[in-house]
Write a structure and sequence with these properties.
By secondary structure, this protein is an alpha+beta fold. It is built from 5 helices and 5 strands. The strands form 2 sheets. The protein has a 3-stranded antiparallel sheet. Helix 1 crosses helix 4. The N and C termini lie close together (about 5 Å).
Length: about 130
């Protein structure tokens, strides 16, 4: 196994608090599963801030940022049965990783955390 990329991002929560009042921002940035899952959380600001940071961190781990046809909605952060966040691997994500690194099998690792004022995410892209 080889680490192909790492990414980290920090978001000021009050910035996201303002943005999530816009339905345009929510629809442009988050997938349907993420929006549906958000209904379980009373603190929407931290929920969306952590996911925003996670999307940025993954784009950085790819080494491309948001270009080459990669947008925020292409990256979805879901939670497993015990609540652990993970990156949902879509066909588009598979194609982007394959094109960039010439591999088909890969792992994505994610750690997210938040405090009152900030949310942070750390992403690792690794070969299987």
């Amino acid at each position: 196994m080889k680490i192909l990329g790492i990414g980290v991002d920090v978001v000021q929560n009050k910035r996201i608090k303002v943005l999530i009042n816009s339905k345009f921002f929510l629809k442009r940035t988050f997938g349907l599963k993420e929006l549906k899952f958000s209904k379980r959380f009373s603190n929407k600001t931290n929920y969306f801030a952590k996911r925003f940071a996670a999307k940025e961190a993954l784009a950085k781990s790819l080494g491309t940022g948001f270009r080459n046809n990669l947008n925020f909605r292409d990256i979805q952060i879901l939670n497993d049965k015990i609540g652990k966040p993970y990156y949902f691997k879509s066909k588009k994500m598979d194609n982007i990783v394959n094109k960039r690194f010439k591999i088909k099998n890969y792992n994505l690792f994610l750690s997210i955390s938040d405090e009152k004022d900030y949310s942070v995410a750390f992403a690792i892209l690794q070969t299987k």
